[in-house]
Design brief:
Layout lengths: L3 H10 L2 E5 L8 H11 L3 E5 L5 E2 L2 E2 L13 E4 L6 H10 L4 E4 L6 H9 L3 E4 L3 H9 L23
Parallel strand pairs: 1-2, 1-5, 5-6, 6-7
Antiparallel strand pairs: 3-4
Helix pairs in contact: 2-5, 3-4
Length: 156
């Protein structure tokens, strides 16, 4: 689901995010999104077997290794990797499976939904949060307006 009511409920109820495929490289989209969510009050749990720590948080090799409850599993992995991640999300009792922009896996979606999880697919957690709570802006100026019309003052 990706309607506004569902997304607002997800952001309200899910305060602990396990980010699968989170990179320690500051220039990677996963790092940018995770840092943004941390800065907006969410607990971020990195999941990546290559690192010991990311963004000041202990990094875990997989979802099942996380010793605390996880509300939302955010996936920055290729679509072919999503089904086992969805299985693990169900196994750890997550409420939401979130597949990032470009990550589409219908089998993972069906499995998670059948287990009662809310599934958001082909959306960015950072972009959706900013869109719903006033963080989208042009050149750092927060207009609080979302529009598909290009402002006249921006050079083409």
């Amino acid at each position: 689901m990706s309607d506004i009511i569902t997304l607002r409920r997800v952001f309200r109820d899910c305060r602990t995010l396990a980010i699968v495929g989170l990179s320690a490289d500051w220039f990677r989209p996963s790092n940018f999104a995770a840092k943004y969510m941390q800065e907006h009050g969410y607990k971020v749990i990195p999941v990546n077997p290559k690192y010991g720590e990311i963004l000041g948080e202990k990094c875990y090799p997989d979802l099942k290794s996380i010793p605390e409850p996880v509300d939302l599993v955010d996936v920055f992995r290729k679509p072919a990797d999503c089904l086992p991640i969805a299985e693990d999300a169900v196994a750890i009792g997550a409420k939401v499976l979130w597949l990032q922009i470009g990550v589409i896996n219908e089998a993972a979606k069906r499995l998670a939904e059948a287990a009662g999880l809310t599934v958001v697919m082909d959306r960015c957690v950072k972009i959706e949060y900013a869109r719903l709570y006033g963080g989208l802006n042009w050149f750092g100026v927060n207009t609080h307006v979302i529009s598909s019309r290009r402002p006249n003052w921006i050079p083409h």
